[in-house]
TrEMBL record:
Signal peptide: none annotated. It is an enzyme of class 2 (transferase). GO terms for molecular function: metal ion binding; nucleotide binding; poly(A) RNA polymerase activity; tRNA binding. The lineage of its organism: Bacteria, Pseudomonadati, Pseudomonadota, Alphaproteobacteria, Hyphomicrobiales. Residues 30-151 form the Poly A polymerase head domain. Residues 187-239 form the tRNA nucleotidyltransferase/poly(A) polymerase RNA and SrmB- binding domain. Gene3D superfamilies: Beta Polymerase, domain 2, cca-adding enzyme, domain 2. This is CCA tRNA nucleotidyltransferase. It comes from Rhizobium pisi. Its EC number is 2.7.7.19. Pfam families: PolyA_pol, PolyA_pol_RNAbd, tRNA_NucTran2_2. Belongs to the tRNA nucleotidyltransferase/poly(A) polymerase family. Residues 283-410 form the CCA-adding enzyme C-terminal domain. Transmembrane segments: none annotated.
Amino acid sequence: MTGLADQAWFRDPALGQVLALLNADGGEGRVVGGAVRNSLMGLPVSDIDIATTLTPEIVMERAAAAGVKAVPTGMQHGTVTLVIDGKPFEVTTLRTDVETDGRRAKVAFSTDWKADAERRDLTINALYADAEGEVMDLVGGLADIETRNIRFIGDPATRIAEDHLRILRFFRFFAYYGSGRPDAEGLKACSAARSKLKALSAERVWSELRKLLSADDPGRALLWMRQVAVLTEILPETERWGIDAIPSLVATEKALGWAPDPLLRLAAIVPPDAARLEALAARLRLSNAEAATLNAWAMAAPVNDEISSAAFERLLYRNGTDGITTRLKLALAVARGKAEGDLSEMARTARLIKLLQLAVNWKKPAFPVNGGDVISAGIASGPRVGELLAALENQWVEENFASDRAALLARLQERVQ
């Protein structure tokens, strides 16, 4: 039998205490989902979720009797979070679906482990481990973990009809855990139901897409999403732009030690068109910060990689670093993708790396003169103050910030006489 008893996370006394609390007096609790899946795949385990035959009310009662902190995080869905030694354990009662509409489900509590497993989405997410660490597989998940096959439980169309977000989850889990070609029946069902994604909230769609784009290498998943027209369903902006930049971007990230950045990867597959990106941000309900990042990239001035350092610093001062940094990273990824055997692209890569380092480390100098100085020089409040200040600042920038406050004030006096 497959077991997890030798895993360090499974031997944690806090987890043992939770399982002992749930397994007393005829109850049963088992670790489920990601912790089991990741352990079997040799991947790090973070969150530990537990399924139980006990109702949430009984879980709360047992926790109170044992002096364990219990938070009713989702009682109507059967979920209670137990906290021991500062570690949260999400405990959810076994469930069956009473009614589904593709967006949300009404559930009934159960004591049937097989029914609970069969209502989940993918086989690799429906494995349980008991208090001894023995793994229970009721849907063929162990075989799929061995082959890294991402497969829906039972009929793919039925699973998707229960929750349309499972279309995106299929590709997200393929990006993180899959190998080879995605399951053919799953692909077919995702393609057939892709129009149903419009019925989901924008927040759920973007949350899932952001997770997918955060995978170490989302390239193959994006390729298959494009193949079955799921990508253009949620990102029509990619239809004429494509995803060809992703492989070289991922390779550049790994070579230069960049952390996976979902917004940078999104920028790589959509056009730098401010109006279209504004519409995209509104449609997917991106946060203000996310929308601003994309807008800064779209509005950033193009960078000639042969620009001098002095001219580049002036560009950074006038345009900010965020959008230009994104442009440089994407240009660098393209150049590195072409560089092998191409001396001109190799030289361009070196220049882009230098500019990127300048941008990342650049600190915007503070203009040492303000409007109060202009007024003190004898100019009455009004538009003339701003005009003089702007002219003075522009000259200071063109001289690459060389003049100090005293020199600028002297120059101001010359302008107002």
